Amino acid sequence: MDTPKPIGYWLKHLHNLLEEQFDATLADLGLGRRHWQILNTLARGEATRDGLIAALAPFWAPGEPDLDRVLEDVTARGWIRPGPSLERNPVVLADEGRAAHANIAARVDATRAVVLKGLTPEQYTETVRILSVMAGNVEADLAAR
User: Fold this and answer.
1) How does pLDDT run across 72-128, given as a tens digit for each residue?
2) From start to end of 59-133, where are the E strands?
3) Domain 7-144 carries which CATH code?
4) List of residues 6+ apart from 45 with CB closer than 8 A
């Protein structure tokens, strides 16, 4: 009889599958998940390099192209430009970047629909809540050490 796998297994397994799925979803565009995350972050408003690093830090794994390399790529595509203020060199999406974001967002939405197939919105919300509580418990325990 198979023993059920623990939550750590499923978290890591799902994470790896999501990375692979995003790569497959965006491969024909020559993009990766980090490109999407930069575009999606900038779609909410301008950001500095430090702001992007902070926003994306939980996702960036060793061995991936660094932020500057991905920023160079999206800049070369004409998707980002310097922001209206010069303070700390913010960047914003150019019109081409907004169009690219919209096109890529449709693909990402379809990918998310595959991931969430068979789950109700309430089940998804509860899953995220539970994982958040578990993460908070571990953070509190680590901080108390």
Assistant:
1) 899 999 999 876 554 567 888 999 999 999 999 999 999 999 999 999 999 999 999
2) 80-82, 91-93
3) 1.10.10.10
4) 92
